[in-house]
Amino acid sequence: GAGVSQTPSNKVTEKGKYVELRCDPISGHTALYWYRQSLGQGPEFLIYFQGTGAADDSGLPNDRFFAVRPEGSVSTLKIQRTERGDSAVYLCASSFKRETEAFFGQGTRLTVV
Amino acid sequence: QKEVEQNSGPLSVPEGAIASLNCTYSDRGSQSFFWYRQYSGKSPELIMSIYSNGDKEDGRFTAQLNKASQYVSLLIRDSQPSDSATYLCALYNQGGKLIFGQGTELSVKP
User: Fold this and answer.
1) Cα separation of A87 and A19, whole Å?
2) CA-CA 20 to 30 A from B110: which of A77, A80, B51, B58?
3) Who contacts A63 (Cβ-Cβ below 8 Å, separation ≥6)?
4) Cβ of A35 under 8 Å from any chain B Cβ?
5) Residue A13 φ then ψ, to 5°
6) Which residues of B touch A99 (CB under 8 A)?
7) What is the pLDDT along chain B (110 residues), one digit of tens a residue?
């Protein structure tokens, strides 16, 4: 596609539920990054993929968070047993390869009630 | 020490003035540096990239890099009210992770 696409744009879920957030990167981009952003803060790194493999998942806050990229294109961020503290904007970015310019999708605003 | 540090601001400048935004970083191995602009409620938008020491100009924007001092800056000439946004400094660390500062809020007053 022309740009990075994230779905849904907004997601409201109840505490304790499971959610999946999807990211469709720019075609041909091998690197894909997930971030979480709270109001007034910069994007907080969660995980990045080079191809199908997670190259660095050091930012995932706990084992409730998991991400996959099975075919090296679309990625899904999965959050189990959601908590109110998980409420934030989740951003996805992609780049042609490591250490090149990265471009963001429009984000998914997750609200846990 | 944070990996990427920026003053949170807000930085307020009058229309037509030069806005100067600064960023320091801790990983001496970092080679690729970026500035993003983020309007309220929107996602970050890439505006400049810089890889070598010195200045890089693009229109009203100039990025400056000094690897010895571990310092990156962004100058915006002839600032316009439409430049009011949060500016994020970002870099790849040696592990290939793209990390961001907390951002500097810029306000350009007409």
Assistant:
1) 12
2) B58
3) none
4) yes
5) -135, 160
6) 31-32, 92, 96
7) 789 999 888 999 999 999 999 999 999 999 999 999 999 999 999 999 999 999 999 999 999 999 999 999 999 999 999 999 999 999 999 888 999 999 999 999 99
Q: DSSP letter string over chain A?
A: --S-EEE-SEEEE-TT--EEEEEEPPTT--EEEEEEE-TTSPPEEEEEEETTEEEE-TT--STTEEEE-TTSS-EEEEE-S--GGG-EEEEEEEESSTTS-EEE---EEEEE-
Q: State whether the Cα torsion B9-A95-A55-B70 is positive or negative.
A: negative
pLDDT of A2 reads 84
pLDDT single digits (tens) A76-97: 999 999 999 999 999 999 999 9
Residue at token pair 């970002």:
B90
Q: Report the C-alpha gap between A87 and B75 in whole angstroms.
A: 34
Peptide bond before residue A8 is cis, with ω within 30 degrees of 0: yes
CA distance A42 to chain B (A): 4
